[in-house]
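In this section we walk through a basic example: taking a raw amino acid sequence and producing a predicted 3D structure, encoded as discrete structure tokens. The instruction is simple. Fold the sequence below.
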Amino acid sequence: MERTQILASDLPATRLGQMVLAGQLIDDVPAVPGPLRVMEHYVLSVVFKGRGRYRHADRRVEPVTAGAVMVLRPGQPHWYGTDRGERWTEVFAVFRGPLFDTFAQAGLLSHDGPRYPSPPPAMAALRAILRASPTAQRAAEHQLLALAGWLLDVAPQPDGGGTPEIAAAAERLASQLDHPVDLRALAAEVGLPYDTFRRRFTAEIGKPPAAYRNERRLAAAASLLRLTDMTVRAIARTLGYVDEFHLSRRFKAHYGLSPRDFRRSQ
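The resulting token sequence is shown next.
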């Protein structure tokens, strides 16, 4: 397997912006020139495995570990990479445009350095977004809007997010969407009685644990319908549903459309 895979390059320029480059680095050393670099476009890097360091413009250094999300603004001096002998796996994107300028002006892309969002965003959805290779402008705009929605999920929250126990539980519920999760066992893992866990999760995240996980799975299904040509059966299998009919019932109850009608509407 190639260690650097380009998922998209120079996609159509639109009124909202453009996806300049997207790809993934698999168990390798990121090629970021030092001591600092400045990019003319926005850069997103999400580290899935491994560890390294992020260097600020003032030469401060922060550790980077799995789960880190880094959003770099145009003109922001920075450097990130692995230590000698270390490797990591990341998904990255380079993009530009007024849609993202608006996000930056609103303070949604203002964090300097690695973040560990709570609750975490759906990583499967990000890969689906970046794998899309639209050739028409309208499809390219849908891709940029999907990326903007993903970035909104990782933007710093005004209240600073939830407590570590609930953040860890939310991360588990938002990842590995194809595997069942025992909520009582999860509560025990984060050190809380089940009733306390359920009450605190609902208060901090805004919905009960099961509803939160269901919403994340359906959001991932919507992204796959919008951005890929996977069949409903394949999407159901990818996300751990019993079959496509189970997914279709849940999807229609949530979005008001069957998966096939949703795809046609896009």
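Looking at the output, two observations stand out. The domain at 164-265 is CATH 1.10.10.60 (Arc Repressor Mutant, subunit A). The longest strand covers residues 42-55. In the next section we compare this with other chains.
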